[in-house]
Amino acid sequence: MTGINATRVQNYIGDPISAEAPRPRAELEEIFADIQADFRYDHELNGCLNCGICTATCPAAHYYDFSPREIVQLLWTENLEGIYDAMQEKIWACAQCYTCAARCPFGNSPGGLIMLMREAAIKHGMESAKNVLRPFSRVMLKLISTGNQLAPDMITADHFADWGPNVSKIDAPLALLRKAIPMPTLNTTKTAWEVNLKTSVELYTIWEATGVLDQLETIDENLFDVITDIMDEKREDWEEFLEEEHEGD
Prior knowledge:
Largest sheet: none
Number of strands: 0
Distance between the termini: 84 Å
Shape: globular
Radius of gyration: 23 Å
Structural class: mainly alpha
């Protein structure tokens, strides 16, 4: 009988017209192993009927060369070359709306799988991850160094020129809008709260323990160095505060 030993795993699918040198097999296997090892993987990939509902309902698929079904098929068949290729551009087109997960008759979550692929791209320092995250370096510095959110009135075309012409679409008369729709949660640079020193130190400890800072170093060494210096200063301030409190006892 034929087909008894058949497998869904596609050991090799090359691109005969690509001039790019193939990646070492060991590297591709390591990347896939990191994706597959995540505990979310088995919850979000249950098979594929190849029905195309996920792609048909995907907003990003209407505007980009992107298909949630393709992502699921690549992971389901363990097409290592295809997975690596998708991680160079296609996975960054996903808007993480999870319409695909809501519609999939098999209970797959292409959006969740893409998140795992993005995390792997960051871990392995892929250039695609660096390019995507580079415009957000100032946002990350604001968030990690102060523990605070980015205030809406900090997002302007002048301050974020490298975001491209579309940044002008989010530029709005915030003062006027706040008068029309008064909300206590609409914090600005003038009213934003200051994070407690102890909270900042605790946040740094969490980021270190969970590997966030290790991933940041992989993507942007300069930003990592700046944030590390800020962390060291705040930890010293916290230790000095504790010593002063102890002396007061």
